[in-house]
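lol forgot to send this yesterday, sorry. struct tokens for the thing we talked abt
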């Protein structure tokens, strides 16, 4: 166990002792991971009025109690800061919550996938829209991808839309296209987002990226019809130990998010929204810092797409492989940027000058180079740091990291690409040379980028200890270690899920560590992650969650 270092903690206890009011809550009987600048481990924690009152040894903290103080005996369990979900999509989770599950997590063969869909169609009313989500040729290796004709045969009397696990690829039948007003003459919405057509110009059924798919999803996105499912999505994040979540685009209306931020008049979770450019009608006049449970923080931009549609912009060509052919990725292609360096630089400058943070989706190395060029051209940016976030950063070249540090950008890594799709990336999609360089988390820490880890749910499950485990082990599902020199240690992994996330959301003065004066957002877990073997991190369970010093009722999944 790490040595306990109590000198600053003792000072905080002595200051508190001068106050006549004692704490509301005291936690004793287990380690307290403060995640302060020295990653100190305390023996006890005191909370008052929703904030951290003091940390220190058990005897000193117990000396602060009064007859109104509630003492929580941890019985060996561990207290740590509440996790910060730096990049998730709770609205998309809610949208697809009622869809037919075709995922590779639950279906291991082509037959299982399509039998499940056919059964769902048989149980649907004639004319009812049917949505299925999770199609995954990587986790279901013998999967046969659908065509418009295939889906017409499965659902001749219903509009049918199938969504890939990556959330970047979609398929629809003729009835769905007709109901959505999409025909062979419908123009593609933009670079990388399109309606695939055959040699005769007819729709094949495949739709690339969310811009083109938006008309097919309208019936799922009736805002107030989403409310219950959106609350369920937030509750699932809370059950996993998250006390704050950043929603990176495709959001419910802010009014609904504010409503969902509480349960029975008590706080549920802190939400931070980044709006995509077709949501700017919801943009306030200026960043709102008054509401501790809901804020619009910034703008989400896409510079490239996904490695699993071939829209990630990469310098090395995509492989000629059976999987890439199945995914519709032409051999030798490179993907393409969504807009030029000049346009990106103008957007960064305009939004940051207005006080907004700018989050940029950038996965491929060619994309990341252009994003870095745009930052260089934009010059010194106004606003509270960090002004710019880089999202996903799968192929981030290590050589760019010093420049990103100079431009004071930060990075959030989509780390479980390694666990779920790492083998496929190396063998079939981008090749071993490029896959051997992915997700340089350790290098980002070394240069002070203070990176975070995220799941991009609903793409992958938002499970904090799984993300930490992958960052430590770099293990794919087959056990191969991908770019192992970029592994980090457990203290860094915890920071990536707590204080670094708070910094990215510009709340590091209020959250992310258990230090005097900060919000009492904390979780109790059944094992100390600092003392847990890396291969067992995903076995740690969240026992309790406290938000603003109040114990939350962890609801069961519906």
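and heres what i got for the seq, position by position
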């Amino acid at each position: 166990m790490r040595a306990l270092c109590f000198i600053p903690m003792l000072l905080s206890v002595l200051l508190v002792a001068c106050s006549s009011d004692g704490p509301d809550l005291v936690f004793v009987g287990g380690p307290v991971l403060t995640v302060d600048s020295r990653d100190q481990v305390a023996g006890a924690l005191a909370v008052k009025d929703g904030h951290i009152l003091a940390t220190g040894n058990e005897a000193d903290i117990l000396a602060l109690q009064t007859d109104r103080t509630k003492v929580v005996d941890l019985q060996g369990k561990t207290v740590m800061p509440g996790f910060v979900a730096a990049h998730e999509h709770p609205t998309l989770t809610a949208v697809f919550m009622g869809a037919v599950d075709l995922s590779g997590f639950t279906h291991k063969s082509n037959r299982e996938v399509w039998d499940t869909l056919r059964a769902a169609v048989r149980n649907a009313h004639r004319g009812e829209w049917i949505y299925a989500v999770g199609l995954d040729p990587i986790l279901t290796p013998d999967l046969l991808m659908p065509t418009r004709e295939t889906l017409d045969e499965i659902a001749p009397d219903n509009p049918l839309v199938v969504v890939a696990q990556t959330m970047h690829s979609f398929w629809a039948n003729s009835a769905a296209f007709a109901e959505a007003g999409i025909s062979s003459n419908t123009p593609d919405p933009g670079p990388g987002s399109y309606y695939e057509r055959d040699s005769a110009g007819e729709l094949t059924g495949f739709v690339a990226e969310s811009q083109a798919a938006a008309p097919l999803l309208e019936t799922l996105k009736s805002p107030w019809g989403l409310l219950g499912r959106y609350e369920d999505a937030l509750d699932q994040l809370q059950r996993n130990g998250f006390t704050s979540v950043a929603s990176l685009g495709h959001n419910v209306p802010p009014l609904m998010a504010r409503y969902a931020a509480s349960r029975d008049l008590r706080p549920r979770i802190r939400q931070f929204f980044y709006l995509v450019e077709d949501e700017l009608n919801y943009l306030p006049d200026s960043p709102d810092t008054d509401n501790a449970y809901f804020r619009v923080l910034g703008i989400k931009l896409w510079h490239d797409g996904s490695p699993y549609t071939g829209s990630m912009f990469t310098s090395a060509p995509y492989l000629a492989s059976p999987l890439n052919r199945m995914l519709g990725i032409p051999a030798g292609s490179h993907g393409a940027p969504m807009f030029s360096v000049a346009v990106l630089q103008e957007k960064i400058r305009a939004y940051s000058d207005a006080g907004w943070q700018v989050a940029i989706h950038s996965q491929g190395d060619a994309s990341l180079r252009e994003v870095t060029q745009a930052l260089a051209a934009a010059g010194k940016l106004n606003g509270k740091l960090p002004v710019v976030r880089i999202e996903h950063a799968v192929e981030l070249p290590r050589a760019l990291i010093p420049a990103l540090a100079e431009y004071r950008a930060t990075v959030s890594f989509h780390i479980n690409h390694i666990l779920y799709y790492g083998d496929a990336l190396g063998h079939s999609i981008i090749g071993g040379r490029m896959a051997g360089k992915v997700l340089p988390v350790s290098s980002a820490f070394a240069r002070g980028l203070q990176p975070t880890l995220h799941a991009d749910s609903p793409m992958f499950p938002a499970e904090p200890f799984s993300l930490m485990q992958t960052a430590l082990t770099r293990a794919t599902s087959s056990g191969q270690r991908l770019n192992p020199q970029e592994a980090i240690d457990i203290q860094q992994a915890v920071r990536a899920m707590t204080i670094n996330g708070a910094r990215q959301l510009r709340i590091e003065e209020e959250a992310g560590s258990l230090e005097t004066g900060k919000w009492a957002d904390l979780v109790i877990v059944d094992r100390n992650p600092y003392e847990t073997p890396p291969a067992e991190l995903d076995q740690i369970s969240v026992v309790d969650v406290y938000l603003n010093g109040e114990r939350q009722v962890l609801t069961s999944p519906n």
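The chain is about 30% helix and 20% strand. anyway ping me if u want another try
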